[in-house]
Specification:
By secondary structure, the chain is of the alpha+beta class. The chain has eight helices and nine strands. A hairpin with a 2-residue loop joins strand 3 and strand 4. 31% of the residues are buried.
């Protein structure tokens, strides 16, 4: 945890820790298997808690637990959830009330649900590019300064295409595409509700079946037993080495 508040994340991490404890208890009660993931898993393994400059919590579940989790959160007196673009996020109810319903101000758990990657190369590519296109239609007006000329054109085309359809329609289609191919085991799963640059990652089908408890600050959380393989997929072989100091900064809050 950012004890010295060097990165301005101490208060956020204190709230996130309470949120994570509440979430973990909810999953235990409802027999939901989850694993911390992305930066939260990296923090668990490298720091035994938060990466000091991290400002959210990432968890991953298999699709078979999704409806049970969302129902449990809906019935919970302490948690609230909603869609942010195509991603499910969970907040503490008291934080939601403190910030007057402004979900963007609340410390959150981002829920990444894994779906099946078709074994057919053609179907896999169709699913990948269709999801990527839909993300472009759902995003708000893009910041074109971030892209090359080809990226500017693609962002403009997908943004304009999205203006012709209500958000509810686009989200329903998005979920149907994410579920396409589910039903029988395949070699890989993927987080099709992740951000664009993470859509390419492929995870062995059984990676989430076994989890173990690891120390996280003053509590314990679920971590997939094959965390080393997962972290190498995401961050490379040298994931235990922190980035340069210029890249040590929060993602969602201003310093």
């Amino acid at each position: 945890m950012d004890i010295e508040n060097k990165y301005g994340t101490l208060k956020v991490q204190q709230r996130l820790l309470q949120l994570l404890k509440t979430f973990d208890a909810l999953c235990k009660k409802n027999n939901i298997v989850y694993s911390v993931s992305s930066g939260t898993m990296l923090g668990t393994i490298r720091h035994q808690g938060f990466i000091p400059w991290d400002d959210d919590v990432d968890i991953t579940i298999e699709r078979k637990y999704y409806n049970r989790l969302m129902a449990a959160v809906q019935e919970s007196p302490t948690l609230v959830s909603d869609k942010d673009l195509w991603l499910d996020r969970i907040w503490l109810m008291e934080d939601y009330e403190v910030f007057h319903g402004d979900r963007h101000a609340c410390p959150t758990i981002d829920v990444f649900t894994w779906d099946y990657v078709p074994d057919s190369r053609l179907k896999e590519r169709i699913k990948y590019y269709a999801i990527a296109f839909l993300q472009g239609t759902i995003k708000p007006r893009p910041d074109y300064t971030r892209f090359s000329w080809s990226g500017k054109v693609l962002s403009f085309v997908t943004y304009m295409a999205g203006r012709f359809f209500p958000l509810s329609v686009k989200l329903r289609l998005y979920d149907r595409l994410a579920l396409w191919g589910n039903g029988k085991p395949t070699r890989f799963q993927a987080g099709y509700h992740d951000q664009f640059n993470a859509l390419r990652f492929r995870y062995p089908f059984h990676m989430l079946e076994k989890v173990e408890r690891h120390q996280f600050e003053d509590t314990e959380v679920n971590v997939m037993s094959s965390y080393d393989e997962y972290l190498k997929i995401i961050y490379g072989d040298d994931y235990m080495t922190p980035p340069q100091e210029t890249n040590q900064r929060p993602t969602h809050i201003k310093q």
